[in-house]
């Protein structure tokens, strides 16, 4: 009985094999089975060596390939070698040839049948330098992206400034799209999608809140010839422009402006760190926070958090600056009124104007005064210098005085003082006077000693 059952099973297998082979496919073929492709190219009937040679030629062709990358209204020629792009053809060849050759009889027959009917696609595994590709993507982003601009009200003439849409490169799909185009022989170009970014505040939003009267404003000037610093000021000003602060809400400069990183569009410019001017990404942003601080003071809003710089600045008076460091020092103020407040930041010919607007004109007048100003004399630092002869001196840095100062805000109504508050007692460090002292022996002194 047992032998009879085994015979039946054996005959069934033979019958299935006959039917399978009738389709023109042999389980014992040394060729790639029908339906197997590599990146869309059929390898049917190829030997293992054929597959390896074909993919090797393909790889050499791709290594020489260039594509045109379109992003917005710009284009860029990119070659595979520029991002160290390569393909694992050995793994692809093995996968293509081995398909349908592992597992039991039924498993193999099923795979071969599925490949013939539905196809089996082998994808070339790419290897590339991610840092290099990311640098190109960052470059493309900087060329095409712009922040949306909120609707606002002009500090200069009170006209409503319409909103503008922003543009953003779809970074999440840019890398894969470039790699796919470079890995396809017949794809000469790729278009990176650019999406529009709507503004947070529109003209309709401003009108709906009834905002239109200027409360307080302040203007500072900057050097437009300093391109990077100017770019940082413009970017930070645009980020705070058009923000509406609801009653009771707190405005955080760091939260609104965000991290000062190159990937967010900020550039390297000189900034004050530990009392010294050094290059840093985002240099110049403190001029925006300081200008805003003065507009807030004149609008009689509540200061929540503010810090002065370590040394005096040139664009605002002593005691009227507000330094910011992302993640460490912030400038915050609260809307202590019963109505929404609109922030406007405008830039024109090297002038930064920031104003705060409400529904009705302020009934009070605000004055900012400074008292108790005391100078702190700079220390004199002497250092040896071998380039100067003994007895000679040279002033390397003249030094600058520091200051202590108290800043007050006085609020008046109908000409009468109704409130006086101490805003801050600030200390600005002096800059040391540095004198070089010569240590080099004069020629005659050396001659006399021989």
UniProtKB/TrEMBL annotation:
<dbReference type="InterPro" id="IPR022029">
    <property type="entry name" value="YoaR-like_PG-bd"/>
</dbReference>
<dbReference type="Pfam" id="PF04294">
    <property type="entry name" value="VanW"/>
</dbReference>
<dbReference type="InterPro" id="IPR052913">
    <property type="entry name" value="Glycopeptide_resist_protein"/>
</dbReference>
<feature type="domain" description="G5">
    <location>
        <begin position="362"/>
        <end position="441"/>
    </location>
</feature>
<dbReference type="InterPro" id="IPR007391">
    <property type="entry name" value="Vancomycin_resist_VanW"/>
</dbReference>
<dbReference type="InterPro" id="IPR011098">
    <property type="entry name" value="G5_dom"/>
</dbReference>
<protein>
    <submittedName>
        <fullName>Vancomycin resistance protein YoaR, contains peptidoglycan-binding and VanW domains</fullName>
    </submittedName>
</protein>
<keyword id="KW-0732">Signal</keyword>
<dbReference type="Pfam" id="PF12229">
    <property type="entry name" value="PG_binding_4"/>
</dbReference>
<dbReference type="Pfam" id="PF07501">
    <property type="entry name" value="G5"/>
</dbReference>
């Amino acid at each position: 009985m047992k032998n009879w059952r085994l015979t039946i099973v054996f005959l069934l297998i033979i019958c299935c094999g006959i039917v399978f082979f009738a389709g023109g496919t042999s389980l014992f073929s040394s060729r790639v089975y029908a339906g197997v492709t590599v990146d869309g190219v059929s390898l049917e009937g190829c030997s293992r060596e054929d597959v390896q040679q074909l993919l090797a030629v393909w790889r050499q062709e791709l290594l020489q390939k260039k594509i045109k990358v379109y992003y917005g209204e710009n284009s860029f020629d990119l070659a595979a070698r520029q991002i160290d792009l390569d393909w694992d053809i050995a793994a692809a060849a093995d996968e293509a040839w081995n398909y349908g050759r592992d597992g039991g009889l039924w498993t193999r027959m099923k795979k071969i049948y599925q490949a013939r009917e539905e196809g089996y696609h082998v994808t070339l595994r790419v290897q590339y330098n991610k840092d290099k590709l990311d640098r190109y993507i960052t470059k493309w982003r900087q060329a095409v992206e712009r922040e949306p601009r909120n609707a606002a009200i002009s500090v200069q003439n009170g006209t409503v400034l319409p909103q503008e849409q922003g543009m953003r490169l779809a970074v999440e799909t840019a890398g894969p799209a470039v790699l796919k185009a470079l890995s396809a022989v017949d794809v000469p170009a790729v278009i990176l999608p650019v999406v529009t970014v709507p503004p947070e505040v529109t003209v309709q939003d401003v009108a709906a809140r009834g905002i239109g009267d200027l409360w307080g404003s302040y203007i500072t000037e900057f050097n437009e010839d300093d391109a990077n610093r100017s770019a940082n000021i413009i970017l930070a000003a645009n980020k705070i422009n058009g923000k509406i602060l609801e009653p009771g809400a707190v405005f955080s400069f760091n939260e609104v402006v965000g991290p000062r990183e190159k990937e967010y569009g900020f550039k390297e410019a000189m900034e004050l760190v530990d009392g010294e001017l050094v290059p840093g990404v985002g240099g110049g942003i403190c001029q925006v926070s300081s200008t805003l601080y003065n507009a807030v003071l004149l609008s009689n809003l509540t200061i929540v958090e503010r810090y002065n710089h370590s040394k005096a600045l040139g664009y605002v008076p002593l005691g009227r600056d507000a330094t910011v460091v992302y993640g460490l020092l912030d400038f915050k103020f609260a809307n202590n009124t019963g109505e929404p407040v609109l922030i406007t930041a405008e830039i024109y010919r090297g002038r930064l104007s920031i104003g705060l607007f409400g529904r009705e004109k302020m009934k009070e007048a605000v004055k900012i005064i400074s008292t108790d100003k005391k100078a702190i004399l700079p220390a004199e630092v002497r250092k040896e210098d071998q380039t100067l002869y003994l007895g000679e001196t040279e002033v390397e840095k003249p030094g600058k005085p520091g200051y202590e100062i108290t800043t007050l805000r006085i609020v008046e109504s109908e000409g009468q003082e109704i409130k006086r508050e101490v805003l801050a007692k600030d200390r600005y460090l002096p800059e040391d006077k540095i004198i070089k002292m010569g240590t080099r022996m004069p020629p005659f002194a050396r001659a006399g000693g021989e």
